[in-house]
Amino acid sequence: MKFRCERDVLVEALATAQRATSSRATLPVLSGLRLSLAGNTLRLTGSDLDLTITTEIQVSGGTDGVAVLPAKMAVDIVRSLEGGAIDVEAEGDEARISGGRSNFRLHAIPADEFPNLIDPVGDQVTLTAADLAEGLKQVVRAASTDESRPILTGVLLAVEGQGLRMVSTDSYRLAVRDLPG
Predict the structure, then answer these.
(1) 6 and 51 co-located in one domain
(2) Are residues 85 and 162 in the same domain?
(3) Which end of the chain has the lower number of beta carbons within 10 A, N or C?
(4) How many domains does the chain have?
(5) Residue 25 reports pLDDT greater than 80
(6) 136 with 109, same domain?
(7) How do strand 32-38 and strand 65-70 relate by DSSP bridges?
(8) Which pLDDT tens digit goes with each residue over 111-157?
């Protein structure tokens, strides 16, 4: 895999996907980010098996491929580089990240160890980030904080018609918020 990208774009994408990784994962591969290049689209995925974040950015593609890089190290390296174009190349168990006068080599995690994550299927709805954040803020206060009942610690998101219904409860309080799509 080989591609070129602007530093700021890559830092933002890496940092976004890194939020789902765990530094104390039972599987070492879960502390990494899966980078998958197809054409000019780079797909970055981080997961701890409970939460998965995938983001896509446009890059100047060179060679398609897949690599898993240590998340924290990759983010720190790219963040430390000078602004401008960054070159990333991964082959086998080694990756190279270079930009400006800096050149880094790091050990890649075998990509076949990264879990096969299933893309969700079903209805979709499009919302602005502000609407989603506001809706979550309104219902999350009714969610339980008791870890002995983990099913009640989350928020149900269900596509209803052209909108999104958000529901949470702690078995005493119930919060429901409908957002138009």
Answers:
(1) yes
(2) no
(3) C
(4) 2
(5) no
(6) no
(7) antiparallel
(8) 999 998 887 788 889 899 999 999 999 999 999 999 899 999 999 99
Domain that holds residue 141: 129-179
What are the structure tokens assigned to 100, written together? 């400006």
Residue 146 is predicted with a pLDDT of 92
What would the two tokens of residue 10 be?
């890559």
Instruction: In whole angstroms, give the CA distance from residue 47 to residue 153.
Output: 19
Task: Compute how many other C-beta atoms are within 10 angstroms of the C-beta atom of residue 137.
Answer: 10
Q: For the whole model, what pTM was predicted? A: 0.79
Alpha helices in 19-94 (DSSP H): 71-80
Answer positive or negative: Cα dihedral of 82, 99, 4, 113.
negative
Domain boundary among 86, 113, 140: 113
* DSSP single-letter state for residue 144: -
Query: Which among 55, 71, 66 is positioned nearest to 22, based on CA atoms?
Result: 71
**105 shares its domain with 138:** no
In a domain, 43, yes or no: yes
